[in-house]
């Protein structure tokens, strides 16, 4: 229609070129695991708006809670007065925190802002300046968050100098050591912790180091779970030197990585038993409404002066009401159980592809936790690892496969500077829709490599 073509033109001409885009057209409707575009295209959504709509699009309970809240109070402003959903949300979150010491909350809008607040808090609380972050980390797009982001140069190209006082340490990932995916985790972990020890004696003294920030499952940097021993090693180093451990679960939290046995819960860090000093949450927390949070211990946050934290929209009432409904729905609908079952289904399927002779030469790795899962393909740009294997593969396998999936009716994203596809389906996806996604993926893989 004339209206939609003129809107298309507006999209072409008047939206900043600084945005990338996965598909053309406008998303006009979302229902559970599916979205519909203005021209009628219907997609199975394995992106969840980058790991946000864990309960699917427009979950009735969450949408209703938000709509109801719109009719009482939308904006009370956190420095003017509490609103009820703010406090109800804390009530809901306290019992599901990954450690019982986490009892002091501050809500923001986005993950980046929450990371920013965590970094500021770490400096204020410790009276120290420097921050250590991981190679491959992603923490956001604001200046502080960008300074601790180490996953792709595009996020900061042309923007330097970034916030000073940031040091980078290797994450135990085989690419960082330029070895193969079969390298024992124990060896990678020991090497990474050794490098961190060196950093603290060669570059940033513990007396100057306020915090170490880590994603328990690296997100934008390639969906790489941190080995439990690495997280425990970080905790030990932080304890030894009075450094705060900031755990960024913006992407890995809220059930996304559940399904690993007894210590299981809403957060990836639980598998390790490690206590975060500061936990950062967002994305799945409010299923699409803008909301993030910084959680710490009262004993630490009591050191902050009133007025040192704040923000016009921070902890918005509609977003908090949505988040209360998210926590309730996750529990009432046994979503963590579903994550466990669907995770097994997806891993079994991807491991099967990896073991299939027609695909095996192209697939380097299948990894992840819960429904935060990656398949990494061999790269045509030669790493020492690939040269050693005399691998010859088509260029840009991951993006070619993702494009074929989209043509076949499923939204799928790549991630990192490696040839990696990431699977982030809704946490409450049905067995049938998971099967459908797997079938589309295999077809796309076949289209590209055979
Ligand atoms: N931390 C992590 C681990 C993330 O994955 C992201 C977003 N991808 C952020 C922080 C930044 O969140 P936001 O985009 O909401 O600012």
From TrEMBL:
Tell me the CDD domains matching this sequence. OAT_like
Q: Which co-factors does it depend on?
A: pyridoxal 5'-phosphate
Keyword Transferase carried by entry: yes
Could you list this entry's UniProt keywords, alphabetically sorted: Aminotransferase, Pyridoxal phosphate, Transferase
SUPFAM superfamilies with a match to the protein in the record: PLP-dependent transferases (SSF53383)
Q: Does the keyword DNA repair apply?
A: no
Which Pfam families does the UniProt entry name for this protein? Aminotran_3
Q: Which family does it belong to?
A: Belongs to the class-III pyridoxal-phosphate-dependent aminotransferase family.
- The protein's name in its UniProt record: Acetylornithine aminotransferase
- Source organism: Hohenbuehelia grisea
Supply the source organism's classification: Eukaryota, Fungi, Dikarya, Basidiomycota, Agaricomycotina
């Amino acid at each position: 229609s004339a209206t939609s073509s003129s809107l298309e033109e507006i999209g072409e001409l008047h939206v900043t070129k600084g945005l990338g885009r996965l598909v053309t057209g406008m998303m006009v409707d979302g229902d559970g695991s599916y979205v519909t575009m203005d021209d009628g295209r219907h997609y199975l959504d394995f992106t969840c708006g980058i790991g946000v709509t864990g309960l699917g699009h427009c979950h009735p309970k969450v949408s209703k809670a938000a709509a109801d809240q719109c009719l009482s109070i939308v904006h009370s402003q956190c420095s003017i007065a509490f609103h009820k959903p703010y406090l109800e949300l804390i009530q809901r979150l306290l019992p599901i925190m990954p450690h019982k010491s986490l009892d002091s909350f501050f809500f923001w809008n986005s993950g980046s802002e929450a990371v920013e607040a965590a970094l500021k808090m770490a400096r204020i609380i410790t009276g120290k300046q420097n921050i250590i972050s991981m190679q491959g980390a992603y923490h956001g797009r604001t200046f502080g968050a960008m300074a601790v982001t180490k996953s792709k140069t595009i996020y900061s190209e042309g923007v330097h100098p970034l916030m000073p006082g940031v040091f980078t340490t290797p994450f135990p990932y085989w690419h960082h050591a330029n070895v193969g995916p079969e390298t024992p985790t124990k060896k990678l972990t020991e090497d990474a912790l050794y490098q961190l020890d060196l950093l603290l004696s060669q570059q940033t003294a513990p007396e100057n180091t306020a915090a170490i920030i880590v994603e328990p499952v690296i997100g934008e940097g390639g969906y790489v779970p941190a080995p439990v021993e690495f997280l425990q090693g970080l905790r030990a180093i932080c304890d030894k030197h009075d450094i705060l451990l900031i755990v960024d679960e913006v992407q890995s939290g809220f059930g996304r990585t559940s399904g690993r046995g007894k210590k299981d819960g809403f957060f990836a860090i639980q598998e390790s038993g490690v206590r975060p000093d500061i936990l950062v949450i967002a994305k799945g927390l409010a299923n699409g409404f803008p909301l993030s949070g910084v959680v710490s211990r009262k004993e630490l946050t009591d050191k902050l002066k009133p007025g040192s934290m704040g923000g016009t929209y921070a902890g918005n009432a509609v977003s908090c009401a949505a988040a209360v409904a998210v926590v309730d729905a996750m529990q009432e609908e046994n979503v963590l159980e579903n994550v466990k079952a669907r995770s097994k289904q997806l891993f079994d399927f991807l491991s099967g592809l990896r073991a299939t002779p027609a695909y095996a030469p192209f697939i380097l790795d299948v990894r992840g936790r819960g429904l935060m899962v990656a398949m990494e393909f061999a790269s045509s740009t030669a790493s020492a690892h690939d040269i050693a294997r005399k691998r010859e593969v088509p260029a840009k396998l991951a993006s070619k496969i993702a494009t074929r999936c989209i043509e076949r009716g499923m939204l799928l994203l790549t991630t990192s500077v490696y040839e990696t596809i990431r699977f982030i389906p809704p946490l409450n996806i049905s067995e049938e829709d998971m099967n459908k996604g797997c079938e589309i993926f295999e077809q796309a893989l076949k289209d590209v490599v055979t």
